[in-house]
Design a protein that fits this description.
Elements lengths: L2 E8 L5 H17 L3 E8 L6 E8 L2 H12 L15 E5 L6
Antiparallel strand pairs: 1-3, 1-4, 2-3
């Protein structure tokens, strides 16, 4: 079963100049990871420090492998850009659709 994952980020205002390049580099690794079906970054129109990363994964297991990789060998410096802890939310398509 495929899933959609929302990673809600609130960046430090002083990191906005460097954030785009770092996030683009990080997401290149995400998109290359086995099971990633796509990634999109949405920027809040009224608050450019608020971003929503929308990831699509082929399976929960592949997403779990990705999260494990990011916690270890695939770790990044994204935390240095954040004003608050990110929020990760998992969505599956409703059977009623």
């Amino acid at each position: 079963m495929s899933l959609t994952v929302h990673l809600d980020l609130n960046l430090k205002s002083e990191s906005l100049d460097t954030a785009s390049d770092m996030i683009r580099d990080i997401l290149a690794g995400t998109q290359a990871f086995d099971g990633c079906l796509g990634v999109e970054v949405l920027v809040d129109h009224h608050d450019p420090a608020h971003m929503l990363v929308v990831e699509r994964w082929a399976s929960l297991e592949q997403d779990a492998a990705y999260r494990e990789w990011r916690a270890g060998d695939g770790a990044t410096e994204l935390g240095s850009l954040l004003a608050a802890a990110p929020t990760l939310t998992y969505f599956v398509t409703s059977a009623e659709s």
